[in-house]
Design a protein that fits this description.
InterPro entries: CTDL_fold (IPR016187), DinB-like (IPR024775), EgtB (IPR017806), Sulfatase_Mod_Factor_Kinase (IPR051043), SUMF_dom (IPR005532), SUMF_sf (IPR042095)
Helix content: 25-40%
Bound molecules: fe (ii) ion
Number of helices: 9
Pfam families: DinB_2, FGE-sulfatase
Organism: Olivibacter jilunii
Oligomer: single chain
Number of strands: 11
Order of helices and strands: HHHHHEEEEHHEEEHHEEEE
Strand order of the largest sheet: 10-9-8-11
Protein name: Ergothioneine biosynthesis protein EgtB
Shape: globular
Largest sheet: 4 strands, mixed
Strand content: 5-15%
Pathway: Amino-acid biosynthesis; ergothioneine biosynthesis
Length: about 375
């Protein structure tokens, strides 16, 4: 697909994700990690305006210069911004204003995309496309959180069907031989800077499950009082369980002696066959410990992944999110994209059912803090 068509369909898809929303759904921010949908719509647009149109298109007039303050996420280089916890306190710009902002930026973008581009500009546009794809997934997870924490449990879309993956019926462990393996991105296509610095890693022989832990299996952990036994948990995880009164994955509700969970279609009985989703790293670790097993490292995952189906849930790994050898930040604001987050987070590998099509790859490194579980996160065991 050429970059012009890719840009157009990207921008359309973002708006399609928001189509089932009521105006009020666009505005709220129930917790700090969840941004209002209208903020995602504005921020992804701001990215193209700030990094492509303003510096590279002569005479470009920003839609509204004050939007820089509202839609800058975390770029210190770009200046002051609304603090993250205040994103849901802004009734203006309105949703209509933001859709007009998108249109203004799209017109200017499509104009430059119709002519030959300098490689530097074209690389930035490709980064902007991948950035908006990341926010498409965040739109899904943030919308789910907003609706799933409303006492009425409104459906996002009663007909919603997740993309189906080739499922693995048998539960087997795949054995991978010890040896020296190469880790990191290689090739001509796009990757994020955190995947670069391809390097060798020595792995001991290990075994990894060919499928994710199911809801039925996770229920055994719950029914065995896994959430009440400190022995399975890290100290921090145990504090988290006790302070937050955690007794099940996010979105699970025990009603009339049965487990239900909130899905995009509303509240539904738990599907026992489906893989468990919306667990934190703490829970993934505790489950594995209870089983007498462990989580794979991100290197083991990357080496083994061609042998199993992935893409249903992001998979917690035992690896801290660290720079690869030789990691370099790009100069300027773009250098703030990944590098400054390489502390106190765990790597997740794979992709989820709501990851934008074609967005992820074998070397892709997602990352979140150990207590977070509003993303589509699951568990794969290793030994
Ligand atoms: Fe962003």
């Amino acid at each position: 697909m050429d970059i012009y068509t890719r840009y157009k369909s990207l921008r359309q898809r973002t708006e399609d994700i928001c189509r089932p929303l009521a105006i009020e759904d666009y505005v709220v921010q129930p917790i700090v990690d969840v941004s209002p949908p209208k903020w995602h719509l504005g921020h992804t647009t701001w990215f193209f305006e700030t990094f492509i149109l303003t510096p590279h298109v002569q005479g470009y007039q920003p839609f509204n210069p004050d939007y820089n303050y509202v839609f800058n996420s975390y770029y210190e280089t770009i200046g002051n911004r609304v603090i993250r916890t205040d994103r849901g306190n802004l009734s203006r710009p309105t949703v209509d204003d933001i859709y007009r902002y998108r249109q203004h930026v799209d017109e200017a973008m499509l104009k430059i995309l119709s002519a030959p581009l300098e490689p530097e500009v074209s690389d930035l546009i490709v980064l902007g496309i991948h950035h908006e794809e990341q926010h498409q997934e965040l739109l899904y997870t943030d919308i789910k959180y907003i609706l799933g924490h409303n006492p009425l449990f409104p459906a996002y879309d009663v007909t919603y069907q997740p993309p189906t993956l080739k499922s693995t019926s048998t539960n087997d462990f795949i054995r991978i031989k010890e040896g020296l393996y190469e880790i990191g991105f290689k090739g001509d296509g796009f990757c994020f800077d955190n995947e670069l610095g391809r390097h060798k890693v020595y792995l001991n022989e290990f075994e990894i499950s060919n499928r994710l832990v199911s809801n039925a299996e996770y229920l055994e952990f719950i029914n065995d009082d896994g959430y009440s036994d400190f022995r399975h948990w890290h100290a921090e995880g145990w504090d988290w369980v006790r302070n937050e009164k955690i007794t099940a994955p996010l979105y699970w509700h025990f009603i009339d002696n049965s487990w239900y969970h909130y899905t995009f279609r509303g509240l539904e009985p738990i599907d026992l066959e489906a893989s468990v989703r919306h667990v934190s790293y703490f829970e993934a670790y505790a489950y594995a410990a209870w089983k007498g097993l462990r989580l794979p490292t991100e290197f083991e995952w990357e080496v083994a992944a061609p042998n199993f189906t992935w893409g249903e849930n992001w998979e917690w790994t035992e690896s801290a999110y660290l720079p690869y050898p030789g990691f370099k930040k790009a100069p300027g604001a773009i250098g703030e994209y990944n590098g400054k987050f390489m502390v106190n987070q765990k790597v997740l590998r794979g992709a989820s059912a709501i990851t934008s099509p074609g967005h992820s790859r074998l070397t892709y490194r997602n990352f979140f803090q150990t207590n977070l579980r509003w993303q589509f996160t699951g568990i794969r065991l290793a030994k």
